[in-house]
Amino acid sequence: MLHLQNFLNGTFSPPISGNYLPNIKPATGEVFSQIPDSEEQDVQAAVEAAKAAFPAWAGLPAEKRGRYLVRLSELIDQNLERLAEAETMDNGKPLSLAKTVDIPRASSNMHFFGTGIQHFASEAHMMEGVAVNYTVRKPLGVVACISPWNLPLYLFTWKIAPALAAGNCVVAKPSEITPYTAHLLAELCVEAELPAGVLNIVHGTGPKVGAALVEHPDVKAISFTGGTQTGKTIARTAAPMFKKLSLELGGKNATVIFADCDFEKTVAGAVQAAFANQGQICLCGSRILVERSLYDKFKEAFLQRVQTLTLGDPLQPDTKMGALVSEAHLQKVLSYIELAKEEGGTLLTGGERVHLEGRCANGYFLQPTVFENLPHNCRTNTEEIFGPVVTLQPFDTEEEALAYANITEYGLAASVWTQDVTRAHRVSHALQAGIVWVNTWLLRDLRTPFGGTKQSGVGREGGWEALRFFTEQQNVCIKI
Ligand code: NDP
Questions:
Q1: Across-strand partners of 479?
Q2: Is the pLDDT at 1 greater than 90, yes or no?
Q3: Sequence spans of domains, the chain
Q4: Nearest to 53 by CA among 74, 70, 68
Q5: What's the confidence (pLDDT) of residue 84?
Q6: Residue 5's pLDDT is what?
Q7: Which of 244, 323, 326, 438 is in the most buried spot, having the most CB atoms within 10 Å?
Q8: Binning pLDDT at 50, 70 and 90, where does residue 239 land?
Q9: 236 lines ligand 1 (CB under 6 A)
Q10: Within its chain, how far is the Cα of 334 from the centroid?
């Protein structure tokens, strides 16, 4: 049995309590590793290590810090197969997805910020004939990065890379449900000879490790991705301590389809947006709004495609839908399916747990599920389910589409499908969402601001936004 360890001050250390938690393979239901059930003292040790490492790390030229990240990116590439297999084992996602999306993106995150930091210039403001101002951006010190289970290494590195590039030292906590690739990344940090204490990883639960990090007075900023309720808890603790906060929270995203769309591409895009990673992506389009004149044709083609998605062992190359992340999460999603029925929804396809044969007999598999005939403002249509459950809703006018799309308290992402470019701009601007895709979904340029409005979060990640978050400005004004 694999025993993961915390990564403190450049070495692998058992939790001070000696307690471990079981870590389960979602595709089989088997325990495959034990992870540290860390506590406040482990967090304290990690923060001490990070504090000690900070002056030297912050003092390195940006290019040298960047080189460590580029080296880590190369090591991730060299270990692509191993990391992808680990991600699939830990999360239940199809291996093909881990190989083509999760792990390559983790590598890109490291490379992007490792090189980007060398182009991060400070600003100057001239007061003609009077003074010159220049603005220095300094690293904050010790920062915390807390990430969720749905895209484990992808989101873990998306936070760590800009934090380190900007000169901070990091204490990071991966989700206790999917800690394995973070542990493997620590091994790569040793191989890359990242100086001790620059990145520390503490495994364990949110209420213990996460909360201790948020409460720690020496942790200057929290970069968090996870659920909206957890985000609120974190903000309540961190705000009175005047910590910088970046909160990337939940979503209930609309896919808005007009009758003038490119039909085949739209159907394919809507299916991908609905069911990629078993619907467990904060950006998934779980409310599909379709112009009434296209509704029946779209429904037929959409259902046909959904019914041919291959659900199965995530290790099989043709599998498109793997396992949900845990039994508890599967039960939560199933409870939403019951709720949708109670709310009067018509089940068009799916709705059942799947028991596969062979090694995956006890895995957490669920059919892709589609409902229609639900009120726009019911719980199924407004609460985040975070699983393979979507609804179809017809609309008559653009105004109606916007009203339905904007009805939820979330405001993370949306996609718009039309060939009318004027409408595409108009609708995009009127959508209450931090990210809008037109005729595509989840196409990411790492330079763009990433984040949500309303209950979907505070702040933006990506590009300069991330480097700005992880630095503090100081203006120096020199009189001429
Ligand atoms: P959670 O909010 O439950 O957990 C996220 C992370 O926070 C985990 O590492 C968790 O630890 C930790 N945590 C839990 N409680 C606390 C606490 N009190 N203090 C500090 N940290 C804590 O989210 P999930 O892991 O369930 O992830 C799913 C959610 O993430 C969905 O709502 C999804 O929309 C959102 N998400 C948002 C994204 C975005 O960019 N906006 C992207 C991806 C996901 P542990 O797991 O050990 O409990």
A1: 131
A2: no
A3: 2-249+456-479, 253-445
A4: 68
A5: 98
A6: 98
A7: 323
A8: very high
A9: no
A10: 23
Q: Do residues 233 and 393 lie in contact, with contact meaning Cβ atoms separated by under 8 Å?
A: no
Identify which of 225, 175, 227 has the alpha carbon closest to the alpha carbon of residue 201: 175
Euclidean distance between CA atoms 419 and 316, whole angstroms: 37
Q: Report which residue type is found at 459.
A: G
What is the arithmetic mean of pLDDT over 133-146? 98
* Tens-digit pLDDT profile for residues 254-300: 999 999 999 999 999 999 999 999 999 999 999 999 999 999 999 99
Average pLDDT, the chain: 98
Q: Are strands 2-3 and 31-36 parallel, antiparallel or unpaired?
A: parallel
As given in the structure block, the two tokens for residue 55 are 């002056």
Compute the Cα dihedral for 431, 436, 442, 444 and give only its sign.
negative
Task: Compute the distance from residue 150 Cα to the ligand 1 centre, in Å.
Answer: 9
How many CB atoms sit inside 10 A of residue 354's CB? 15
Q: Which atom of ligand 1 is nearest to the CA of 457?
A: 41
CA-nearest residue for atom 36, ligand 1, is: 226
Report helix, strand or coil for 178: coil
Q: Are the C-beta atoms of residues 103 and 82 closer than 8 Å to each other?
A: no
Specify the DSSP class assigned to residue 406: T
CA gap 216, 275 in Å, rounded: 38
Asked if 146 contacts 223 with a C-beta cutoff of 8 angstroms, the reply is: yes
Helix (H, G, I), strand (E, B) or coil at 262: coil
Bridge partners of 13?
6
Whether ligand 1 lies within 6 angstroms of the CB of 149 is answered as yes
Number of neighbouring beta carbons within 10 Å of residue 467? 21
Q: Give the DSSP letter string of 65-83.
A: HHHHHHHHHHHHHHTHHHH
pLDDT above 70 as % of the chain? 100
User: What is the CA(179)–ligand 1 centre distance, in A?
Assistant: 13
Which atom of ligand 1 is found nearest the CA of 412?
41
> In this model, does residue 388 exceed pLDDT 90?
yes
This prediction has a pTM of: 0.96
User: Nearest-5° angle of CA 131, CA 137, CA 143?
Assistant: 155
Instruction: Give me the residues paired with residue 389 across strands.
Output: 369
CB 218 within 8 A of CB 144: no
- Which token pair is 291? 């112009």
**Fold annotation for 253-445:** Aldehyde Dehydrogenase; Chain A, domain 2 (3.40.309)
Catalytic-residue membership of 282: yes
CA distances from 25 to 180, 204, 281, 310, 314 (A): 11, 17, 19, 20, 11
CATH number assigned to the domain covering 2-249+456-479: 3.40.605.10
What's the CA-to-centroid distance between 91 and ligand 1, angstroms? 14
Question: In the structure encoding, which two tokens stand for residue 175, read together?
Answer: 């989700």
